[in-house]
Amino acid sequence: MFTVRINEGARSLEVEGGPSLLASLAAKGVWLPSICGGTTSCGECANVVHGKFENPSSVEKAILGEDRLARGMRLACSVTVASDIDIHIPDEVLAIKMRRVRVAAAREIARDTRELRLEAIDGDFTFRPGQYLRVVIPPHEGLTESFQRAYSFASPPGGPTISIIVRRSPSGLASVWLHDRLAVGDALDLVGPFGTFGLPEGSAPLVCVAGGTGLAPFFPIFMTMDASGNLSERDVVLVFGAKAREDLFGLGEFEAIARRWSRFRFMPVLQEPDDEWRGAQGLVTEALASIVGDSGGEAKTWSAALCGSPGMVKACERVLARHGIQGDALRRDSFA
Questions:
Q1: Residues carrying CATH 3.10.20.30, the chain
Q2: Which pLDDT tens digit goes with each residue over 155-177?
Q3: CB atoms near residue 195 (< 10 Å)
Q4: CATH code matching the domain that covers 2-92, chosen among 3.10.20.30, 3.10.450.30, 3.40.50.10800, 3.40.50.1380
Q5: Which fold has domain 206-334?
Q6: Using an 8 Å Cβ cutoff, are 247 and 271 in contact?
Q7: Which residues of 74-107 are buried (b: 16+ CB within 10 A; e: fewer)?
Q8: Which helix (H) or strand (E) covers residue 329, if one does?
Q9: What pLDDT score was predicted for residue 335?
């Protein structure tokens, strides 16, 4: 057994050697941020840690970079518990608990895309718009252990129910279970909230780009701003990229917001439009370039928020960088 000292001994845990630090902490009810579920791809579980560890892998080096490694940061999913460890964990993260919910409703909102409405058994949900949770997928189809997958909150905070949006991938163990096995009335466990995704601060014109289910966190973000009246304070364009018309969802909600607020514009973009489609078409990068490159006779300094697959986010970042939009003016949330 080894000791994990949290925040200079404010809390100490006795853990067995062998598993990753991420898994060892989870077994004791301490939940570090992780989008990838411990597969060493998201970098969310990076922390300053002190102990005896194996040398970082090439993947860990690529994610953290030399500067963060030099400051003692490691990925909790990549280091094996083989000694006593000291780690600093923010109080906000230490407060995260596992919660049980029941499926209150489920509906298909687009091709291979399901919205799940989840009702808490033990009180209201508190989170910041833009954050995500992790769903605990139980053992099934020969799996002997549970695992977790991350999904953005897709409804505003403050009530006993929340929504998540799940796209079914034939090879995705979590998404197939959530589509094909989970039914209304079933119970499941959630862990969260996690994450810092949101909108850049300030009054600069804002362009948001969502790819597929990357639209999910923009529901609570803009529904909260709609309710508070904050959409009167800046020009906003929300670009939603999908492959075809049957992949679109959320049109009614965001078009209604656009009707209420003249400074809010919603732009669905289809890669493969049908003959009746009259909206924007092509890649979201093309729509993005046209927005930030069109000064309308007056130069604008844009800020941006991106959510979607890593490839989409990287492609949009390159477009934005050509127009000088980076650093604090850019927020991103990518998922595999």
A1: 2-92
A2: 999 889 999 999 999 888 899 99
A3: 20
A4: 3.10.20.30
A5: Rossmann fold (3.40.50)
A6: no
A7: bbbbbbbbeeebbbebeeeebebeebebebbebe
A8: none
A9: 77
In the predicted structure, residue 297 carries a pLDDT above the cut 50: no
Count other C-beta atoms under 10 Å from residue 159's C-beta: 11
CATH class of 96-194: mainly beta
What are the two backbone dihedrals, phi and then psi, of residue 12, each rounded to the nearest 5 degrees? -130, 140
Could you read off the pLDDT of 36-58 as tens digits, one per residue?
A: 877 888 888 998 899 888 899 89
Asked whether the beta carbons of 13 and 3 are under 8 A apart, the reply is yes
Q: Rounded distance, CA 32 to CA 76, Å?
A: 8
Tokens 């009335």, residue located: 185
The span from the CA of 180 to the CA of 29, in Å, is: 29
Provide CATH 3.40.50.80 ranges for the chain: 206-334
The mean pLDDT value for 319-329 works out to 92
Residue 277 forms beta bridges with which residues?
none
- Locus of tokens 């301490």: 30
Report pTM. 0.90
Residue ranges, comma separated, of all CATH 2.40.30.10 domains in the chain are 96-194
Rounded to whole angstroms, the Cα distance separating 99 from 125 reads 10
Of 106, 85, 235, 228, nearest to 161 by C-alpha is: 106
